[in-house]
Amino acid sequence: MRLLTEGRPIGDTYEVERYLGEGAYSEVYRVRHRFLGRQAIKVFKRVGTLAETRRMLGEAVLLSKLGHRNVVRVFEAGTVETPAGERGFFTMEYVAAGNLDDFRRSHSDGFVPVDDAVEILVQLCAGLAVAHQAAPPIVHRDVTPWNVLVGYDQNRLRVRVGDFGLARRVDAETGLAGSGGTLAFMAPEALRYGQGASAAGDVYAVGTVAYLLLTDLLPYSDVPLTVFGARHRAPPISPHDLNRDVDHELAQVVLRALEPDLQRRPADAAALGRELAAWQASRKHRQHRPGGS
Predict the structure, then answer these.
(1) Are residues 86 and 106 in the same domain?
(2) Which residues form the Protein kinase domain (predicted)?
């Protein structure tokens, strides 16, 4: 049974329009604000009190106030009665085009074009970099295609990092926070240790997203079975071998993001974003050369 039903009011401010989807931790609906129009509402499946909701959303609200174009805006937090009891919710900007998984699946006749995929990844890194550059850094801990919103501004792709509900500040001395997230996108060190989340762990998640965008496959499908041996796994098949539109240089950028040893991985989203932007610049240069491709 879903937590909300279409047409029900939430307080005097919102009316539920339709169900959009769900993840492991929450359900998402489109709602209409009485004065401000359409927004999205995320209702937690387990979080039940306003204090818990506000505690979970502390970092999301902080990041939202920074006003970065690649970070989703959070508007309000509260609680609502559901068939499962009182549940926490927050509202955020609604992006009509949907999430990155919707975008990927819309290319059912082939792979996402490489230039579009890299532009999405560059913007994703720009949004995460805002969090990673905080003092101490804030780590997202759940970068997945379902938590990345993709829309358009004047026919140009615009990406927003969403769902900072699991975000945490790292320890100022160790640079680590408690592990959490979606197994297939978690870095090996986060899978092995309870305190293994880091900015470099978010980079690994972006690498997994990149691999999925470029190949329609996850780099590893056996994560739950190889938690303790994760560091010793062979590297995944090069994206170039699965999609010939991915050149060797881009494939190496993705594989560096998936490096099992976090010391050899780009340290944070800004570092990975620079590598991707450099590839973009090189690609444009090659395309504008006589005979370039």
Answers:
(1) no
(2) 14-277
Q: Residue 75: give the domain boundaries.
A: 9-93
Cα–Cα nearest to 125, from 43, 48, 193, 209: 209
Q: Is residue 140 part of a domain?
A: yes
Q: Are residues 109 and 51 in the same domain?
A: no
Backbone phi, psi, residue 31, to 5°:
-125, 160
* Listed residues 35, 68, 93: the one ending a domain: 93
Number of domains in the chain: 2
Token pair of 57 as six digits: 């959303």
Same structural domain for residues 27 and 105?
Answer: no
* Amino acid found at 47: V
Alpha carbon distance 117, 115 (integer Å):
5
User: Is 18 among the domain residues?
Assistant: yes
Each residue's pLDDT, cut to its tens digit, for the chain (293 residues) gives 899 999 999 999 999 999 998 877 789 999 999 999 999 999 999 888 888 888 877 767 777 777 899 998 888 888 999 999 999 998 988 988 889 999 999 998 889 999 999 999 999 999 999 999 999 999 999 999 999 999 998 889 999 998 887 889 999 999 999 998 888 899 989 988 888 999 999 999 999 999 999 999 999 876 554 444 455 467 899 999 999 999 999 999 999 999 998 999 999 999 999 999 999 999 988 887 776 65
CATH number at residue 180: 1.10.510.10
Pick the last residue of a domain from 58, 93, 128: 93
If you search the block for the tokens 């996402």, which residue do you land on?
A: 112
Give the alpha-carbon dihedral of 28, 34, 37, 42, to 10 degrees: -10
Single pTM value for the model: 0.87
Per DSSP, the chain holds a count of helices (H) and strands (E) of 9, 10
